[in-house]
Amino acid sequence: MVRRLGFGALFGLGGYVIAACAGYFLVGAMSSNTHDRSVEAAMTSVFVLGPFGGLIGFIAGFVRGGRAVPPAADAANPSP
């Protein structure tokens, strides 16, 4: 369970950063706001898109962290 939460937190942080950076540039490029485009891009990316990316990253990390890696077969001592 701790492994799942660790992977979830790590992936969530990465997802937040990636979504916030991508959102900043996308909103800045696509916004029709002429007065404060940079403020709109910053607020939207930090408070809307970043948390969505963090949530998606946390879920992906939680699922990924739960997969058990099967032990490698030992060629010298095969199990019966």
Descriptive report:
The protein is mostly helical and 80 residues long. 72% of the residues lie in helices and 0% in strands. The protein is rod-shaped, with a radius of gyration of 20 Å. The two termini are 31 Å apart. The mean pLDDT is 86.
Any descriptors?
80 residues, mainly alpha, 2 helices, 72% helix, 0% strand
- Distance between the terminal alpha carbons, to the nearest Å? 31 Å
Question: Would you identify the regions where 5 or more consecutive residues have pLDDT less than 50?
Answer: none
Question: Mind summarizing the main beta sheet?
Answer: none
Radius of gyration: 20 Å
Count all strands and give the number: 0
User: How many discrete structural domains?
Assistant: 1
General form: rod-shaped
Mean pLDDT: 86
Summarize the amount of helix as a percent range: over 70%
